[in-house]
Request: fold
Amino acid sequence: MRPPHIVLIGAGSALFGPETLRDILVCEALRGSRVTLVDVHEEHLARIHAFGQALNRAAGAGCELQATTDRCQALPGADFVIVSVAVERERLWKLDWEVPLRHGIRHVLGENGGPGGLSHALRNIPLMLDICRDIEALAPNAWLLNYTNPLSRLCLAVARHTRVKCVGLCHQIGEGYRVVSTILGVPTTELRIRAAGLNHFTWITDLRFADGRDAYPAFRERLAASDPAFMPLSRRLHDVYGLYPAVGDRHAGEYIGDAWREVGLAGYEFGMYENWVAGVWESIDAVLAGDEGEVGTWLSEVSGERGVPIIAALWTGANQYEEAVNVVNNGAIANLPPGAIVEVPVVVGGGDIRPLCVGALPTGIAALCARQVAIQELTVEAAVTGSRRAALQALCLDPVVPDTPTAQAVLDELLAVHAPYLPQWF
Reply:
């Protein structure tokens, strides 16, 4: 069997490129792969390419590494395309956070839900659809694995408006494991979580110890006795709706109107993120300088992201269970619309990805999710057509937006400040 051709779009990102590339290079099933790195930032792309070459030599992975700023040069013959891109992510995200606050909207993160989630999607959906049109033309059989947020909305746009085979991937279930482990006082390796819902809004429908025993009764007992200041929003949602969220307070809070009461209004720690990125670049530069210890550290770890293991299973035909993949519902969650993008367990096998049927969510939780599905549908319509009516409806339906006049004012300002990035509107 020939090795696969894998394209990484957004490879110049310190958040995505080096770890994804390293995961490929240490994966035994993907030895000898052709890997093409794509990014519009030439300097970052060149550094990641050189970094990859150093790890490739050290690991003896035998991969063919290429780099280009033109994705159309990279895509012909691709078997897999992993995408993690955003339009000026941090700078514009800050505006998505600040503008609604000026209008009195108390939101907790401003990335995937609320006015910030709408604005984020309006910028990134056209970019993702442009990428998909190139995939349709140049690599029509390729799988697209999307990491870009707002993940559900982008995957829905791909499903609605392209023929590309697409799944969305997110590591947030790991936060569910961390929280449950903390409350129960057992290692994450001793737990098994089944979660279902929407990306960043999944709910633990089944919780077991590694030996198969039902862990939910013990979890609920320990939760009731635990520090009420630990994940207070998740505690409240559990007490009201009967299941515990699998994503942590801040992400769940993007879809809850009064989440600010527990989560606060501090927003995303942009300074912490900038420091973390600087540290990654320092580590990359150490590898480029020949620091064998740093090389060894990179090659001894994996990121924990599931994109590369899924690619390996698709390519080799192995059967593999994956806990959290974003796919078109088609009945996986019985009481959500069939065309919605849901996050559920899947089986990767036979060159395909098949969602598992998890049944119906509790009525209240399904209602919370159904509202977000409707918002996502309107957001995709707005992003594709430039419909101000659809965008306004998405905001008026959003639980963090208090009234129609506020929705209108916020939409006007967000469209004005982001006008250079919204060609479908102006």
Remarks:
- The first strand starts at residue 5 and ends at 9.
- The chain has a mean pLDDT of 97.
